[in-house]
DNA sequence: GTTTAGGATTCG
């Protein structure tokens, strides 16, 4: 007689789930919201899993007991759910807690020890389960991209959402809607953290320790629903803060120098799994964190190499007039860029806020995201450009003009460039110029020829200067410190596609469209856009009485692996 | 015994 009931659990593959049943399933966590207090009576957690059938299942878990919900720390964790109810929501199977629901969670890393995390006092775990976990790890290693949101403070970028593993060193009430957490992870941010103003004496924590850590600590403001969680946290505990948002702020000081600081916000709500979870000492990421904390360079945090313009202890280093922030643009913070420089790699990057304050002409290396661009339709960006207009040259002598024009008359227009899907072409034969042929292209809009007053007309012209096909676009660039409009005028260097061939080649059009869509993807926020490394020059433009500074992109090309 | 939320970033 055995005290343990010989239950043989059957696990249903995720592609065989039927509404109205109660099942046991295994899966890899693809998305999750750490447990949070619902608007009802229970804690809630939303978890999406996937298995070898490549079918996803989103599950809703409710429990009055926080511990009873699945103990998931990151995407890629492996879970086993027992007595999961399957219901149908929006015509899709959906999992939900049913009575007797229980879960086990395992690290998803190949080769890591198979240790179940659970609040269940007793649970069934056999050699078969062990095999299931191993098999899912192997499958996930080639089918699930590793979590890219786990980032150390030294690698944070302005305008980013990421998950931070850190230790809490201080906390303070700010107001009803926000709460301050002071944390560190042993590394230093590329820009100094903002300092949230709080009333004296409300900061809880070891003030001597916090002072010693100086700029190794960051200030996080958490809002709304996260306030009560933050308030309950114990100083010294290890945390993972999910979907933490960074924002680079330029602050003007009395000395008129630009100050840059990095803000950290945990916004209200639970979208994208925003939340806070305490990690136990046994967590393998906490082991790593502890090592980073032990080996942290406290002296580096003092920034003794920076000349501060203010004597205030917590002040931010000022930007020099050249706008260089090289001290904080730590090289290890490099992230792959969607465009690269073809020259000037030795130059330091300059934040846009600094460029916007300076006189033209100058040249800068920048790193920014493409907030938007104009025109949206590729055919509108292809223009004929006259290089002579941009260069200072003598107007040809009248005597030479005849010869130049006569030569032009003998050239026959290229018929390959006529009547494409993007424009209609007409050949106009002159009567009094020896029958010289002039080709006029009427550019269509979405395949339709616009009214004559709105139609872009390209004229293959007049013999003196061979006109050059170019892409002309306006890029609105944003690096978190400022926004700047820069022109791109490119014949083939930037896209590595000749502008002269774009109008007659569908594949090239698709390629440029895809590149632009990758720079500036629709439907996602700018934080998820790729970084562009660009070289720009500023120049003065006089428009009547007004003088304006414009910017042009050059010596920049689309990164090779994107072409 | 029911409700909660039902993935899909704030705007401080």
UniProtKB/TrEMBL annotation:
The keyword Cell cycle does not apply. GO terms for biological process: regulation of telomere maintenance via telomerase; telomere capping. It comes from Sciurus vulgaris. Residues 11-141 form the Telomeric single stranded DNA binding POT1/Cdc13 domain. It is found in: Chromosome, Telomere; Nucleus. Homodimer or homooligomer. Component of the shelterin complex (telosome) composed of TERF1, TERF2, TINF2, TERF2IP, ACD and POT1. Binds single-stranded telomeric DNA as a monomer. Associated component of the telomerase holoenzyme complex. Found in a complex with TERF1, TINF2 and TNKS1. Interacts with TNKS1. Forms heterodimers with ACD. Identified in a complex with ACD and single-stranded telomeric DNA. CDD domains: hPOT1_OB1_like (cd04497), hPOT1_OB2 (cd04498). GO terms for molecular function: G-rich strand telomeric DNA binding; telomerase inhibitor activity. Keywords: Chromosome, DNA-binding, Nucleus, Telomere. GO terms for cellular component: nuclear telomere cap complex; nucleoplasm. This is Protection of telomeres protein 1. It comes from the Eukaryota.
């Amino acid at each position: 007689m055995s005290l343990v009931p010989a239950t043989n659990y059957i696990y249903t593959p995720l592609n065989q789930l039927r509404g109205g049943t109660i099942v046991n399933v295994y899966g890899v966590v693809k998305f999750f919201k750490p447990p949070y207090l619902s608007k009802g009576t229970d804690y809630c957690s939303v978890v999406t899993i996937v298995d070898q059938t490549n079918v996803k299942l989103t599950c809703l878990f409710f429990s009055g007991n926080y511990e009873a919900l699945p103990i998931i720390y990151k995407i890629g964790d492996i879970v086993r759910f027992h007595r999961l109810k399957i219901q149908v929501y929006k015509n899709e199977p959906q999992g939900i807690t049913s009575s007797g629901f229980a879960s086990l969670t395992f690290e998803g890393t190949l080769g890591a020890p198979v240790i179940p995390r659970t609040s269940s006092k007793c649970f069934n775990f056999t050699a078969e389960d062990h095999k299931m976990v191993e098999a899912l790890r192997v499958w996930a290693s080639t089918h699930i991209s590793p979590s890219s949101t786990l980032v150390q403070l030294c690698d944070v970028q302005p305008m980013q959402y990421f998950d931070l593993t850190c230790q809490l060193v201080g906390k303070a009430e700010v107001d009803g809607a926000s709460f301050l957490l002071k944390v560190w992870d042993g590394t230093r941010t590329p820009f100094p953290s903002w300092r949230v103003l709080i009333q004296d004496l409300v900061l809880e924590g070891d003030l001597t320790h916090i002072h010693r850590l100086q700029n190794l600590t960051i200030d996080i403001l958490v809002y709304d629903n996260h306030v009560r969680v933050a308030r309950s946290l114990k100083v010294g505990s290890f945390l993972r803060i999910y979907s933490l948002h960074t924002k680079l702020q330029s602050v003007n000081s009395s000395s008129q120098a630009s100050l840059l600081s990095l803000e950290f916000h945990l916004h209200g709500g639970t979208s994208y799994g925003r939340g806070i979870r305490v990690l136990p000492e046994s967590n393998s990421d906490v082991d790593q964190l502890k090592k980073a904390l032990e080996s942290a360079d406290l002296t580096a945090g003092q920034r003794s190499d920076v000349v501060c313009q203010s004597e205030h202890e917590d002040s931010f280093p000022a930007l020099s007039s050249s706008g260089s922030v090289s001290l904080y643009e730590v090289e290890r913070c490099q992230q792959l860029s969607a465009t690269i420089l073809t020259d000037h790699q030795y130059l330091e990057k300059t934040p846009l806020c600094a460029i916007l304050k300076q006189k033209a002409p100058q040249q800068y290396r920048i790193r920014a995201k493409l907030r938007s661009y104009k025109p949206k339709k590729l055919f509108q960006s292809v223009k004929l450009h006259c290089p002579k207009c941009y260069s200072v040259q003598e107007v040809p002598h009248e005597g030479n003009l005849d010869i130049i024009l006569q030569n032009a008359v003998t050239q026959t227009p290229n018929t390959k460039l006529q009547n494409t899907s993007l424009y209609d072409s007409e050949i106009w034969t002159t009567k009094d110029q020896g029958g010289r042929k002039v080709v006029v292209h009427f550019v269509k809009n979405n395949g339709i020829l616009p009214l004559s007053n709105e139609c872009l007309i390209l004229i293959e012209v007049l013999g003196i200067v061979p006109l050059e096909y170019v892409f002309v676009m306006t890029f609105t660039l944003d690096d978190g410190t400022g926004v700047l409009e820069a022109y791109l005028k490119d014949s083939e260097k930037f896209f590595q596609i000749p502008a002269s061939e774009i109008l007659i080649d569908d594949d090239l059009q698709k390629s440029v469209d895809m590149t632009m869509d990758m720079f500036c993807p629709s439907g996602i926020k700018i934080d998820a856009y790729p970084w562009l490394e660009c070289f720009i020059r500023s120049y003065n433009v006089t428009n009547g009485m007004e003088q304006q500074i414009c910017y042009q992109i050059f010596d920049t090309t689309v990164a090779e692996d994107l072409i």
